[in-house]
Amino acid sequence: MSMNKRERVMAAIRGEPVDRVPVSFWLHNFASEHSAQALTDATVRLYRNYDWDFLKPQSRASCFGEMWGTTIVPSTEQTVMSMVREYALKDARALGSLEPADAAQGALAEQLDAYLAIRAQIGPEVPIVATIFAPLMVAPFMLAGGREAVLKLMREDPAALERGLAAIGQTLAQHTRRCIAAGIDGIFYATTLATRELMSVAECRRFQRPFDLPIIEAASGAPVNIMHVCGDNTLFDEFIDYPVSVFSWATTPGNPSLTEVRDRTGRAVLGGLPGKPQIGAMKAEALVERARQSIAATGGRHHLLGPDCSINPGTPEVLMRAVGTAIKTGRH
User: How far apart, in whole angstroms, are the C-alpha atoms of residue 165 and residue 191?
Assistant: First the structure.
């Protein structure tokens, strides 16, 4: 049995037999994220170098906040994140008066331009997913106080936070619809605040779910919609019924295993390899062994092999190449 990349990824998502488990990595190059052309060039270069089965172009994290006025000083170094020049909002309460932005303009339009340019260069065989941050993850990029300021507002003026999240959510839903209408294969929908350390179950249900679901539903019908819950000790049970085709998270303390989520949901899981910073210190042999163990645990069904989260910028080429070579040659 031989499959092309799209056939392999779709079969894995459906839980059908595959010729091998599909594999991909994603990592930032902070010096190549500041225009559609630079992001396109960096993504296509990685794809051609490593021949991954699906692509998650690494948009700059600030692009969502830029829709409301956050500005950055672009980095010129691959491994050094860009600095914020000015935040969109002076204080957290200003989130309460936020208005939806036009996703057909500005930084989000630039991201879609990059996705389409990538598609034009690599062709239709390779699934591409658009990164979308949850509104609760976007809000900190607008404030000097970041995450702490948003969590403080959550407890002191929850209605103001809800109004801001609604405006962000409407914008991201529009962006998602534009991506799917343009032929992008789905979304990689990420949240970083849904951990037991940062919020309660009740807060997750109030400030995550009502603003997540309209965005995910905007991608309904797309074949590769991925829910990524980032961090240790996540409130993973709060996402288990989200209407996505793939779940992604770190198999770290307090989180379920790949097989637990696969068996519980009947849906595909993405993972099996460590993300940053752990992967940067690993040897190739140890990383290949992690891949082998992951595939053995799932039996290679409903499984896409990838990192727990993005990997270190500047990850040694030997690491990324070793996993792909082992998988493709059956030496895992």
Answer: 13
- pLDDT at residue 136 tops 90: yes
What is the sign of the dihedral through the CA atoms of 257, 260, 261 and 263?
A: positive
**Integer Cα distance of 188 and 230 in angstroms:** 12
What tens digit of pLDDT does each residue of 193-226 get? 999 999 999 999 999 999 999 999 999 999 999 9
End-to-end CA distance of the chain, in Å? 18
At 42-72, the pLDDT tens digits run 999 999 999 999 999 999 999 999 999 999 9
What 8-state DSSP symbol labels residue 312? P
* Beta-bridge partner residues of 247: 227, 269
Q: What class is the 5-329 domain?
A: alpha beta
Question: What SS3 string covers 240-262?
Answer: CCCCCCEEEECCCCCCCCHHHHH
The rounded distance, in Å, linking the Cα atoms of 33 and 58 is 8
pTM of this structure: 0.96
Cβ neighbours of 331 (radius 10 Å):
10
